[in-house]
Write a structure and sequence with these properties.
With 322 residues, the chain is of the alpha/beta class. The protein has one domain: Rossmann fold (3-Layer(aba) Sandwich). Helices cover 43% and strands 14% of the residues. It is built from 14 helices and seven strands. It has a seven-stranded mixed beta sheet with strand order 3-2-1-4-5-7-6. Helix 2 crosses helix 4 and helix 2 packs across helix 6. It starts with a helix and ends with a helix. The C terminus is likely disordered.
Length: 322
């Protein structure tokens, strides 16, 4: 099947396709858009050259592309830090789109899981080379049973959701984080990008169809986390964008007491459902009745304690002074 044949159903997704294609175009043009950042995505450049006519309509305005590149660069640094501590880690990329992070980060030992809609997955399988440590799952993230399809193993796990929660509703984010906490357990880490409401509209992709999504911004920092997850740190994206954006971001942060554009780093604090159910079952199980042998042992009288015989009184000879 040709790339163009696979592109048609993916492009039919409208706004969702826009959120997959626009970041790829930005990364492919990173050497020109953000030369000072030193970021280069050669895999994206190769894909862009192969289907440039189809991708060209998804080229965003330069400030938007710069923000996309800076976001990817910040997340790359954090993923690299995690894999340096856990070289055999399990990486889950939710809403992977046309991400090429695996090609940039892989150390030859990672297990990588990319998750997105089936139409996007078909496009990925056509554009990306096969690797037996990389698994691509077609699923509606947050839909019924989506988490079970991932078949996650017990291992140090990092979940990346670049661009996913920026467009998903708050309710979807809550459901997804609850599903992840239920199967992954404590110490699983999560990275995702966010913007304040002030910045969200400026970074939304150019409308190419009626259903082009708009970014969802936050008003307060507490919106960054959910039950069972703890916020570890916030990494500003605007600092990587250079002037004047770094200065503007700093001013906005001081005025609003909120990072206008950043990457949130969370850690799971909840035990998996299986462990919680096992603990609940253990707590609710009544103690087993004592065996007859144990009962007889408890009923048997204890032997009286005996004292050693008292020493005889000293004899008269012993009492005489020497």
């Amino acid at each position: 099947m040709t790339v163009q044949a696979v592109l048609r159903p993916a492009m039919a997704l409208g706004g969702i396709a826009e959120t997959a294609c626009a970041p790829l175009v930005a990364r492919a043009l990173a050497a020109d858009v953000a030369p000072d950042l030193g970021f280069r995505d050669r895999a994206a450049e190769t894909i862009y050259r192969s289907i440039q006519p189809e991708l060209e309509p998804h080229r965003a305005a330069k400030p938007v592309m710069l923000a996309m590149i800076a976001t990817t660069w910040v997340i790359d640094q954090l993923v690299g830090s995690f894999t340096s501590r856990h070289p055999h880690a399990q990486i889950v990329d939710l809403g992977a789109g046309l991400s090429t992070r695996f090609q940039r980060i892989d150390n030859g030992m990672l297990t990588w899981i990319d998750v997105d809609l089936p139409e996007i997955v078909s496009l990925r399988e056509t554009l990306f080379p096969f690797c037996d440590r990389r698994h691509v799952i077609g699923a509606d993230i947050g839909g019924p049973g989506w988490i079970d399809r991932l078949e996650l193993r017990r291992a140090p796990t990092l979940v990346v959701a670049e661009g996913l929660f920026a467009y998903a509703s708050a309710e979807t984010m809550t459901a997804v984080l609850a599903d992840l906490a239920a199967v992954t357990g404590p110490q699983t880490e999560l990275l995702y990008d966010f913007t304040s409401r002030l910045i969200a509209k400026r970074l939304s992709p150019r409308a190419t169809s009626a259903d082009t999504p708009t970014r969802r911004g936050i008003r307060r920092q507490k919106e960054l986390t959910r039950e069972g997850w703890q916020l570890m740190s916030i990494h500003p994206v605007y600092e990587a964008m250079g002037l004047p954006y770094s200065a503007i971001g700093l001013v906005l942060r001081r005025l609003t007491r909120l990072c206008p554009h950043g990457v949130a780093h969370l850690v799971c604090t909840a035990a998996p459902v299986v462990e919680r159910e096992a603990e609940a079952a253990t707590a609710s199980t009544p103690p087993a009745p004592p065996t007859r042998e144990a009962a007889d042992t408890r009923a048997a009288p204890r032997p009286a304690a005996t004292r050693p015989p008292a020493a005889p009184p000293p004899t008269a000879r012993q009492q005489l002074p020497k």
